[in-house]
Design brief:
Layout (H helix, E strand, L loop, with lengths): L4 E5 L6 H14 L7 E5 L5 H8 L4 E5 L16 H7 L3 E4 L2 H7 L3 H13 L3 E6 L3 H5 L3 H12 L5 H4 L3 E4 L13 H19 L1 H6 L1 E5 L7 H5 L6 E4 L6 H10 L4
Parallel strand pairs: 1-2, 1-8, 2-3, 3-4, 4-5, 5-6, 6-7, 7-8
Length: 253
């Protein structure tokens, strides 16, 4: 059975002090919640403080991005080893905002997954279609391409070491949410492809999160879908109380 995972992407919000305070508060709020993995991804500058605040709690810390080289003349980038040293155990790769605003591609996603593995970080790999692509009925083709190219060269053993996050781009930060049926259909398709291309066991073990305006009000319906294993939460993760409610509602029945 796959353990639900709720991951909060704080994007470019919260100072170092604010992030540490939020982690401490969240740690208290979810201290008695079992059966759900909890991760938050603060800004790079706040990772170390957030990791210290998370010590002794059930909260894991993630980076929001990484570069595929260990070091070098790459101004503005950060390596997997640097994230690990700062206290991260997870890293988000290929978020739609990175793809749309900063030129991330399936090929760079692939290289970054390898870098994450090399630094013993668990990748949360984001895939998903735009509104235009959905309206042209290209959702499954887009997902197939992102899986094939993003996970190229990986084995079934590699697959179980990462997490997939399906995030329909049209539902991120818009207040629009894929219906439980739409999310379930996309997740089922992704699961089918993972089973076909990486083996049934690996495909069954890999966790697939839903991302796109996840809130306390909709997480229960979303996670009730057989192939939805949790959520990648954006804006709603910034409030520890609301985020803790999402975590509680994600517990297995």
């Amino acid at each position: 059975m796959r353990t639900p995972l709720i991951a909060g992407n704080w994007k470019m919000f919260k100072t170092v002090a604010e992030a540490a305070a939020a982690v401490r508060q969240l740690g208290e709020l979810v201290s008695g919640v079992t059966g759900v993995d909890v991760v938050v991804a603060p800004t790079f500058t706040a990772i170390h403080a957030a990791a210290q605040a998370a010590s002794g709690t059930r909260i894991g810390i993630a980076g929001q991005n990484l570069y595929w080289e260990k070091e070098g003349a790459f101004t503005g980038e950060i390596s997997g080893g640097m994230l690990k040293e700062a206290g991260a155990a997870w890293v988000i790769i290929g978020h739609s905002e990175r793809r749309a605003l900063f030129g991330e591609t399936d090929l760079t996603v692939n290289r970054k997954i390898g870098a994450a593995f090399a630094s013993a970080l668990t990748p949360i790999v984001c895939i998903g279609e735009t509104l235009d692509q959905r309206e042209r009925h290209e959702t499954f083709d887009v997902l197939d391409t992102q899986i094939r190219q993003g996970l190229e060269g990986l084995t079934g053993n590699d697959l179980v070491r990462l997490v997939i996050a399906y995030e329909p781009v049209w539902a991120i930060g818009t207040g629009r949410t894929a219906s439980p049926a739409q999310a379930g259909e996309a997740h089922a398709h992704i699961r089918t492809r993972l089973r076909q291309w990486f083996g049934a066991d690996a495909g069954d073990q890999c966790r697939i999160l839903y991302g796109g305006s996840v809130k306390p009000e909709n997480i229960a319906e979303l996670i009730a879908q057989p192939d939805v294993d949790g959520g990648l939460v954006g804006g709603a993760s910034l409030d520890p109380k609301g985020f803790a409610e999402i975590v509680r509602k994600a517990r297995p029945a």
